[in-house]
Amino acid sequence: PGFYWNNTGSNCLPCNCGIGTELTRTLTQLTECDMNTGQCKCAPHVVGRDCTECELGYFGVSENGCKRKFCDQITGKCICPPNTEGDRCDRCVVGSWDYNPVIGCKNCNCSIDGSVIGLEDQCDLTTGQCTCKPEFSGRACNECSKGYYGYPYCRKCNCDMRGTAWGNLSISDTVVPCNPIDGQCNCKENVEVCSKNILHLNLILLISSFIF
């Protein structure tokens, strides 16, 4: 015990297991290694044939293993995961959210078109909600608000409330929704067209037919 076979020199070499060797019950066991490879039995997160180095992201070799993740192997200074900062890498950088100590933070990815000017690269650290212009909505401001259509331009719907099927709307609502893609209005039964301009034109023509 305490030696391994040296294949290149045809002799035995001492194990010389380092401080990172897994703590065992007896000193004899502590000095043992694999008889063929010389590999010592390392403590958790300790590497190397003689157990003297830490895995990447760990530091502080001892018989109990290496400590802490995401740090320099020698100095212990934290190596932060993506989009994190601080001495302990414990918070998201501006422009990111949803902190995770292992994988870091997610990018906000706020829509340039839909976000308030000057806040395009910022969002809520917990929810990721970007700061949207009034006509835009969604977590990343990449959708049109109710009453607007055609992202990324988000033009105001042109539906006339008198001819539009309200659905969940109340009489106090001032915004009448339309199809968020093409702006098509949802007309009431027996109303063929319910956009404001055309509905007004039809009313004028109808009144004119009675007058003349």
From TrEMBL:
<feature type="disulfide bond">
    <location>
        <begin position="42"/>
        <end position="51"/>
    </location>
</feature>
<dbReference type="GO" id="GO:0034446">
    <property type="term" value="P:substrate adhesion-dependent cell spreading"/>
</dbReference>
<keyword id="KW-0732">Signal</keyword>
<feature type="domain" description="Laminin EGF-like">
    <location>
        <begin position="108"/>
        <end position="156"/>
    </location>
</feature>
<dbReference type="Pfam" id="PF00053">
    <property type="entry name" value="EGF_laminin"/>
</dbReference>
<keyword id="KW-0964">Secreted</keyword>
<dbReference type="GO" id="GO:0043256">
    <property type="term" value="C:laminin complex"/>
</dbReference>
<dbReference type="GO" id="GO:0009888">
    <property type="term" value="P:tissue development"/>
</dbReference>
<dbReference type="InterPro" id="IPR002049">
    <property type="entry name" value="LE_dom"/>
</dbReference>
<keyword id="KW-0084">Basement membrane</keyword>
<protein>
    <recommendedName>
        <fullName>Laminin EGF-like domain-containing protein</fullName>
    </recommendedName>
</protein>
<feature type="domain" description="Laminin EGF-like">
    <location>
        <begin position="15"/>
        <end position="68"/>
    </location>
</feature>
<keyword id="KW-0272">Extracellular matrix</keyword>
<keyword id="KW-1015">Disulfide bond</keyword>
<keyword id="KW-0677">Repeat</keyword>
<dbReference type="GO" id="GO:0070831">
    <property type="term" value="P:basement membrane assembly"/>
</dbReference>
<dbReference type="GO" id="GO:0007411">
    <property type="term" value="P:axon guidance"/>
</dbReference>
<feature type="disulfide bond">
    <location>
        <begin position="132"/>
        <end position="141"/>
    </location>
</feature>
<dbReference type="GO" id="GO:0016477">
    <property type="term" value="P:cell migration"/>
</dbReference>
<dbReference type="GO" id="GO:0009887">
    <property type="term" value="P:animal organ morphogenesis"/>
</dbReference>
<dbReference type="InterPro" id="IPR050440">
    <property type="entry name" value="Laminin/Netrin_ECM"/>
</dbReference>
<keyword id="KW-0325">Glycoprotein</keyword>
<keyword id="KW-0424">Laminin EGF-like domain</keyword>
